[in-house]
């Protein structure tokens, strides 16, 4: 153990296995989605925010202020078929969440951006989620807070690995046989 940190030195083990078995992976998989859903539900209720499906939130996260993307770019990043993203964007435009316009660079392309309304909604969701999470964290024991704080960098790396694997998948095929 490191004398000053109380944490294992590089190459040491702490008695805790460094390998997460399938049961541990299943536990983690069972924790993350309900945590995310719970935060969204409480945020919606506490701020009287509209229900935005995950797919819409993912689109908006890819369109921060000043960023425009084509529907094809959004489909590729989100791993959605072109018809699916087209329908999603049409609905989001009707709800005032995105705007679409002809590209200045290539008149054959459409560019999509988040509206100010959508950006304000996301900011409210984010602020409410942060407050809710901070309040819930305040109810935990110091040792639990330390464990969570220590896990955040590893969870960020895990997220990056999962996202990289998802992006490496072959393109989504659109079934045009109907």
Automatic annotation (TrEMBL):
Region Disordered, residue ranges: 1-20
User: Which CDD domains does the entry mention?
Assistant: HTH_ARSR (cd00090)
- PROSITE patterns, per database record: HTH_MARR_1, HTH_MARR_2
Q: Which SUPFAM superfamilies match?
A: Winged helix' DNA-binding domain
Does Transcription regulation appear among the keywords? yes
Q: Which GO molecular-function terms appear in the entry?
A: DNA binding; DNA-binding transcription factor activity
* TM spans (from-to): none
Question: What keywords are assigned to this protein?
Answer: DNA-binding, Transcription, Transcription regulation
| Protein name, per record | MarR family transcriptional regulator
